[in-house]
Amino acid sequence: MISASRPNKRRVTRFRTKLLAAMMLVVSGLMAFALYFAQRHVTAAAQRDLQQNFQAELFSLDKVQELRNAALAERCGTLASRPRIHAALEDNALDLLYPSAKDELRDLMEDEGSLHTGPSLHAKFYRFLDAAGAVLSPPNPKDVGQLSHRVETQLILKKLPETQQIGYIRENADAADEIVDEVVAAPIFSTETGDVISALVVGFEPFELIGKGAGSGTKSGIWLNDQLHMPSLSKSAQAALGSEIAKAVTNSASAQSNFTVTVNGAPQLLFYKRLNPNSLFPPAYEICLYPLADSMAELHRLRWRIGGAGALLLLGGFVASHLVAARLAVPVEKLELDSEKNRAQRKRAETALASTSEKLKRSTRYSADASHQLKSPVTVLRAGLEGLLTRDDFKPEIYEELSALLHHTHRLTGVIDDLLLLSRVDAGHLQIDSQPVNLSQIIEEWLDDLGALPDSPEVKIEKKFPADLCIAGEKRYTSLIVQNLLENARKYNRPDGLIRVTAARNGGEVVLTIGNTGHPIARDAQEHVFERFHRGGTGSHISGHGLGLNLARELARLHDGDLRLVRSEDDWTEFEARFLIAAQTSDGATQTT
Amino acid sequence: MMRRLARFNVVVALFPISVLGQVTVEGRVELPKSHSAPVVAKRYEIVTHGGVLSTQPPLAVVYLEGSFPKPASPPTRQIVQQDLAFIPPLLPVQVGTRVEFPNLDDTYHSIFSYSPTKRFDLGRYRPEERPIPSVVFDKPGLVTLRCDIHEHMRGLILVLNSPHFVMTDADGRFRLRGLPPGHYTLNAWIDSKTTHERPVELKKGETLQVDFQ
Fold first, then answer.
1. B123 CA to chain A: closest CA distance, Å?
2. Given 3-state DSSP classes, what are the helix, strand and coil percentages for chain B, each rounded to the nearest 5?
3. Which of left, alpha, beta for B198 (phi over 0: left; psi -120 to 50: alpha)?
4. pLDDT on residue A12
5. Burial A362-396 (b: 16+ CB within 10 A, else e)
6. CB B72: neighbour CB atoms within 10 A?
7. What is the complex's ipTM, to 2 decimals?
8. Contact between B147 and A82 using a beta-carbon 8 Å cutoff
9. Which of A100, A450, A544, B115 is at a distance of 20 to 30 A from A167, taking alpha carbons?
10. Contact in structure between B138 and B117 (CB atoms under 8 Å)
11. How many Å apart are CA B197 and CA A497, to the nearest integer?
12. Are A329 and A12 contacting, i.e. CB atoms less than 8 angstroms apart?
């Protein structure tokens, strides 16, 4: 056993290792998946959020711009319909244009400071363009917002626009306090001809894109003429970023896009969108820089979390696999142990069985051999005794002696016959040729014979059974059973005793009970009454050899029935034999079931 | 309206005859095709096409260019504002003429001009305004009249150095009488950008036939 358990332990360890390895593989795979998807999700979500933010900001900007441009368009329409403006433009009195417009546009310019809460609708400056698109110089620049010549040239258009044009210009370019102004050029149509006769260019402070909702660190600016204007960045950073945007803008056909840049060592998501599509003014782009630090940090946190969860899972898996392996290994080990035991037991049982069968064979052969060996001398003996009895020259007491001897040889023959039969039963050679047997008839015959037996006490016989009660069996053996039981009932009876024989159908069976008066079988002997050569200790004066009940029961069982002692007490002993009932066929013949 | 304009033309045409005129020039000016279909009783108005001002339906002013003495007492003419329009829409005058602008509408008008020839601004006034607001035109050239209140109102005053001028009829026919003999240039003003010139030699007692095509 000990030598066998060692390889088992090894096997169990191997099983555990394999289980653990499989679990680790699964957990690592899951973790890799989770990490991959989480990373993708976080990146995409951050990008989406920022993009939405940017779009929302731009949308609100667009709305305000739209509002302002609509207001401006209306203003220009009104302005163009003013006779004095027309007169100034059409009657070659351009010197009177600005004075004429001054009253009309007064509210556009006035009150710069007081309304700084919302996006300003107040202009910083305005200029008229003449029919060629050149700027008409104002006679009094103070009234219309002073501009340097360099700035004023940025307002010039190649031709007068048919629609509103949005443009961006730089003031104080290359200086520290560089600012970008948004200009809107609105055409002035002649009310008579519908021709564009001039344009009003109004300069505004650009709207601040980054509202309160944007996260900290978000920067916005405007990219114009290959240069970035983002005051929150240093000049060099602006220049570097500007060239990157220039590359992106020239390479991409779309008016808006985004890409990741590194500014001052920190990753940022850069969005850009054309502010003035289809404008006669140089293209300008709104630029928004969103720091990716937050989403990076989030990603980092998530990585750690997933890593931690994976580690925990692995640890849990390790423990679980250990437990599971242990739990699994217990029955396996037990199975190993049990099978070892079983094998030994089986071997022992096989050996025992072999020896028993050998013994049985030997004993069966022995009793058969013995019966045959005994039979012939007994026959010789009986023939001799019968021969002696025919002689008439002996004294009368000799004849008595000879008769007694002859009787004993008869008994001996009976014992030998019984032994022979039993040996056949034991050897399994006895086959029942099952036929319908009339049990009632057999009982009647044997009851008749009872009276003929010598030295039998006078007994009363009660019988209660229907005629023609048929059972399935072989007549010689069922007869033997009935004979045995009736002989015993008479033998162990007392004078003036009673034998009661009843037989009746009970379902598919026929139950035969034979009871008799007389000294009952001792209580401790009752369970041995069916053993061979057991005579119940009732009295050695009664003839018998202790094989009858044993043989009767063996035969009853061969008939698929049984024989048992029902009771034996208070001057009454009763046996019960059960047989299968013979089936009655429709044509009247009987068959066994 | 047409009748009034015709009567006015006759007055203008007849005027020089009383002043010792001997020479007569008559003919026809080829007027530009009307942009809109001629409609009976459609009143004359000033229109702009590509910055060019003209009357609609087309009319022309024919005048003799030369150096003529200024009149001793400058004449006074009128352009009335009636039914939210200047009547007549086109008025040729000699330099130094005072033009009155009576308001015959039951509303304010505010006549002004940004033309280099004459800048003026009469401001808002009602029909009762007296004296009738007037302007003396002392420089030759074209003056565009506008009303600051009614943006569609347009009027033209053609200020000429010459006392010899006449407006054609709707077919472009004209007749200038009482012209002094000599070498001159006969002009036909068609619109603010177009004036045809023709040198003429006027001989005493003659009637000259001049057609502008």
1. 12
2. 10, 50, 45
3. beta
4. 67
5. eebeebbeebeebbeebeebbeebeeeeeeeeeee
6. 5
7. 0.74
8. no
9. A100
10. no
11. 185
12. yes
Task: Parse chain B into domains and list their residue ranges.
Answer: 2-203
**CA distance linking residue A329 with residue A11, whole number of Å:** 9
Taking each helix axis from N to C end, the angle separating A2-81 and A83-90, rounded to the nearest 10 degrees, works out to 80
* Yes or no, beta carbons of B48 and A83 under 8 Å apart: no
- Please give the sequence-ordered ranges of beta strands (E in DSSP) within B102-193, or none if there are none: 109-113, 120-125, 134-137, 141-147, 154-160, 165-167, 173-179, 182-191
Contact assignment for A191 to B146 by CB distance below 8 Å? no
pTM of the model: 0.52
- At how many degrees (to 10) do helices A293-390 and A396-427 cross? 160
The 3-state DSSP class for residue A255 equals coil
Helical ranges in A275-395 per DSSP H: 293-390
CA distance A441 to A433: 19
The domains of chain A are located at 47-295, 350-420, 431-592
Phi, psi of B122 (to 5 degrees): -85, -10
B2-203: in CATH 2.60.40.420: yes
Mean pLDDT of chain A: 80
The Cα–Cα gap between A381 and A405 comes to: 9
CATH number of A431-592: 3.30.565.10
Which one of B151, B153, B156, B193 would you mutate to disrupt binding with A, by most A Cβ within 10 Å of its Cβ?
B151
pLDDT of residue B17: 45
Q: For A42-61, what is each residue's pLDDT tens digit?
A: 778 877 887 887 788 778 77
Nearest Cα of chain B lies from the Cα of A65 at a distance, in angstroms, of: 31
Fold of A350-420: Helix Hairpins (1.10.287)
List pLDDT tens digits, range B34-74.
Answer: 655 555 556 778 887 777 888 888 889 999 988 888 777 87
**Burial group, residue B89, by CB count within 10 angstroms (0-12, 13-18, 19+):** buried
Chain B residues in contact with A192 by the CB 8 A cut-off are 47-48
Cα distances (angstroms) measured from residue A196 to each of A66, A106, A134, A187: 22, 23, 14, 6
Q: Look up residue A95 and give its DSSP letter.
A: G
Q: What is the CA radius of gyration of chain A?
A: 64
Q: Are A340 and A4 in contact (CB under 8 A)?
A: yes
